[in-house]
Fold each of these.
Amino acid sequence: MNVDSLYQEIILDHYKRPHGAGLREPFEAEVHHVNPTCGDELTLRVHLDGNTVADVSYAAEGCSISQASTSVMYDLLIGKSIEDAMSVLDTFTELMQGKGQIEPDEDILEDGIAFAGVAKFPARIKCALLSWMAWKDAVVQAQSPPTTPTEENA
Ligand code: ZN
């Protein structure tokens, strides 16, 4: 089996049986991201336990790449510290922006290496990055202080 069909197999596998799919409680932030060029839609919730990514739950609609990418991301981020998870995100983003020239690091990206092939197709890069951008957005929201006035101002 050549590497392209192996990658395709991994993506199809996650698409057919997405890991961690569904919206769960508790969560600190929920975001809705869309990729209008392809029609992908994603609602994503993040649950942090202190500095740990305790859960990422989601409802995804759209192409196989966007949905498989969300499933792979779930596997990669759960249980990691926010810092480590952000570093995985950076590695994945680099791979996607590498125009297919970057050799993916399986130790860090696990099944995420399958998206190395996608990086050759500019139109699909947004599909693969949709969930990661949504996750980052949700974590920022979960960490931002409440907007209600605090007693510090009193
Ligand atoms: Zn798509």
Note: The longest helix spans residues 122-143.
Amino acid sequence: MAFQLPELPYAYDALEPYIDARTMEIHHTKHHAAYTNNLNAAIAGTELEGKSIEDILANISQHSPAVRNNGGGYYNHNLFWEIMSPVGGGEPSARMNIDKAIERDFGSFDEFKKQFTQAAMTRFGSGWAWLCVDADDHLFVTSTPNQDNPLMDVADKQGAPILGLDVWEHAYYLNYQNRRPDYVEAFFSIINWHEVTKRFNDANPGRSNF
Ligand code: MN3
């Protein structure tokens, strides 16, 4: 079963004015579609066919650059579409475990936002900023180059990504040109904290409630 390009969970114009419809359409139908097709081509007829994307990424150091770049691109964009929502933004509510975990591990939401923004701004060239859960069930912020991600065994720090921001120029250039800081700030208006919370809970199903 080949990997499939997912449908977006909202219309291309749903995230305006934060992300414009044209950017979303090109990003999904061209960039994400290409990663998906190229991943399928790279694994066709190999032992990777039929494996989950998570399994492939966990041992990515053993695979070709084509699998690394396109497997990362496939996974990262699947996550990216889902952790945004036209009714998102703000801060996670007190009913979500994630808000207590952010306070515990960063001290405050503002400090988390500062660290995440810093990671997005200081990632030179193309890459991603991430909020992840580590093996000890603590949150951390990191960034990765190109289409790498923290599931990969080549990552500086490994963990389960629960929030990610694409800082490739293709993600923002039509609307923001070189103003990456404005794009990063806008992203905070469309974060789907329900989905981030779900991913936080899935990262450690045995966790007792906060
Ligand atoms: Mn992208």
Note: The longest strand covers residues 127-133.
